[in-house]
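Researcher: Please generate the 3D structure of the following complex. Treat every line as part of one assembly.
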Amino acid sequence: MSDGKLLVKDKEVVVPGEVLVKGMGFLPGYGTYRKEDEIIANRLGLLTVDGKVLKTVPLSGRYMPKRNDIIIGNVIDILMSGWRLDTNSPYSAVLPLKDASFNYIEKGADLTRYFELDDYIVLKVTNVTSQKLVDVTCKGPGLHKLRGGRIILVNTHKVPRIIGKKGSMVSLIKNATGCKITVGQNGMAWISGEPEMEVIAVNTIKMIEEQSHVSGLTDKIHAYLEKATGKKVALAEDKPDNEMKEVNKTESSSKAADSKNQKDFLKSRDSESLTNIKKPKE
Amino acid sequence: MSSKFTKRPDGRKFDETRKIEAKAGVIKKADGSAYFKIGKTTAYAAVYGPRELHPRHMQDPKTGILRCNYNMMPFSSEERVRPGPSRRSKEISMVTEKALGPVMDLKDYPNAVVDVFIELTETDAGSRCAGICAAAIALADAGVTMKDMVSAISIGVIDNNIVMDLDGEEEHIEDVFVADIPIAMVPSTGEITLLQMDGRMTKENLLEGIKMVKPVLKNIAEIQRKALKDKYKR
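Model: Done. Output below.
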């Protein structure tokens, strides 16, 4: 039995049908399969060699709901005992009554008092069955209805890059633009702040999405943000004390801006003040 | 064996294909897309999904399904093509689905569908093969699980000579027998997933043709893979 020879380099793009290894020295992982003494890729992705295991990191494809993911959902239907939500995936999710609010919701109550059609909600996936029935909850830290702002769609596989290590990238954008940003694992991102700053934040996110493979991207984004906003932006990394101050500052300033903005474009919506967002975990 | 047909109209060798070009990721909004050009035949393919399948009665709780749609643009050939589904386009959609089906694995997407839309902007014979090649690249680009590529090309028999990749002019040569056989194959295993015939030919010619087409299809598979890799070149 031969040891197996790697035919493709680590961190290289592999395509379906590409032979990765000849020999029995390696094990097939996600995105690969064994045929006789060969390991072959069955998905487009970046090859990762993890010891003796070969797997691919996907570069494209739709989001698939996974338990404990924080996602953003859009209410598409109101059911007898809950809400149906579009999750930017092949399967819609159900938000049952008991997981919608900390308060007791009586049977037969008017559910639109809690969530209306077309509302966006930050949710956590509680369960996914084999037939892909998805249950979500709105009870938990950082889970809530989104008011105002704008929603953009990004590639779900680029979400970790947008959030950055320990949220470094997203907090950089937050600091620079004073926007509130929530990025869901399902590739839906919510941005709320002053209109011009929202545009800068959207462009920055699009830039990260396009150049996610570039190393030293944080510095590049930092430079871009300073140029776009015309302000000095503190780098959040390595200085946790500074970061806290910075966040507090922007949040208080954005609150003032919010109350002004609400008059402008939240006229028809209810005027409940914008709650603070905690960003989802990586 | 003497034959009236000694030279191809465009000067190609008997086993030579037309010039092939392929590119992945040409339609930004689609989950995966590609274009495939062979000579004067151009196919665009866009993949959407996996997504929820409507109508619901088509849903399969065991696996996701593949749905292909082949369409020629009205201006794609000399004679205007009437828009909308026709008997011909429905058949080609169906055989495309069956040609791609064997490499797909949609078990992870019960009740869902992967939609493939194939549009031909320019046609000069071999359009279903170009469509299949484009669709295979687009499906891989969409990140769908598939065990291998699918490559396709048509072979022809003109007056007892086996030739690769007929063009429109050769298909309509008069006074001699012309047969046209589109073939799709899984390049690594040699499984044939599409085999149709228009015209008449001998059994020997068919077997010889299938033998000849294998290296050509492997070559096309390389072009398809290169198109995918080029999309992510830095």
